[in-house]
Design goal:
The chain has about 260 residues and is α+β, with helices and mostly antiparallel strands.
């Protein structure tokens, strides 16, 4: 019974983490480019009272043995990079990646961050930047007197300059992808950093060599589905409740044993 107390406690701790992840998913249901997470669980060690195959004499063996599990633990919190829904906008700087890939953003420390959030803006210098002012990499500057900004599916950025009728190219958007995107480290602000698990970024032109294409006037929304998260929340709540009930039952059994009289 003492063992069951600790075993149930591991279940409650695991479901608390599960609820934390679900809460973060729901909090970001309207965050552009957000990718939801999922908790993966593993069972803990087993206490072996009698091993399977133990000899019992006269050439006989125990067919199954006796093993008692010691609970559960969270093995990983996996980021799911399936595509979110697209929302159409009137902003020519709103972009989505149809397929695999990440926008590259230059961080204040000079490193590169990666994002699926394509809601870009222009700063005072005409550079294409994020909502936090981080410039797109490679840097793209739109002339102040340019008009009819167009971004092609292959990332070519063009504008019409004064006195001209044909669009002129002013930049080329490059995107990156990773062999294991789930290994990226989220750093907030809709940005990720590569890790040893994600592998090095592979940079290329949209629409070529398996990279996704770009679509202008669209924003990729969060891939969180509220109904799924609500169902997962109910399951986590019931699992937490039943583990707490196991602790209560074990405590009642201990109380009965302690109060026994001859």
């Amino acid at each position: 019974m003492i063992r069951s107390l600790y075993t149930s406690a591991t279940g409650m701790v695991a479901q608390q983490l599960n609820m934390d992840v679900i809460a973060n998913n729901l909090a970001n249901v309207n965050t552009a480019g957000f990718k939801k997470s999922r908790v993966d669980f593993q069972d803990l060690l087993y206490q072996v009272t009698r091993a399977a195959g133990t000899a019992t004499g006269q050439g006989q063996q125990v067919p199954t043995g006796v093993q008692v599990g010691l609970g559960t633990r969270s093995a990983a919190v996996t980021r799911l990079f399936n595509q979110g829904d697209f929302r159409q906008t009137d902003n020519p700087l709103d972009l989505v990646i149809e397929g695999s890939g990440f926008f590259q953003v230059q961080m204040p420390d000079g490193t590169i961050g990666y994002s699926r959030d394509g809601s870009f803006k222009l700063d005072s210098q005409g550079r294409v930047v994020t909502a936090d002012g981080y410039p797109l990499e490679p840097e793209i500057t739109v002339p102040q007197d340019g008009s009819d900004l167009t971004i092609a599916p292959d990332g070519t950025v063009s504008v019409v300059l004064p006195g001209q009728t044909q669009p002129q190219q002013v930049g080329q958007i490059q995107i990156a992808r990773f062999i294991n995107a789930a290994g990226l480290s989220g750093i907030g602000r809709n940005l990720f950093r590569p890790t040893a698990a994600s592998g090095e970024p592979q940079v290329g032109t949209p629409g070529q060599e398996g990279f996704g294409t770009l679509a202008q006037h669209f924003v990729e929304m969060s891939n969180v589905k509220v109904v799924e998260e609500m169902v997962d929340m109910i399951v986590a709540q019931r699992a937490y409740e039943i583990n707490s009930r196991s602790i209560q039952t074990s405590d009642e059994m201990l109380s009965i044993a302690n109060n026994m009289r001859r």
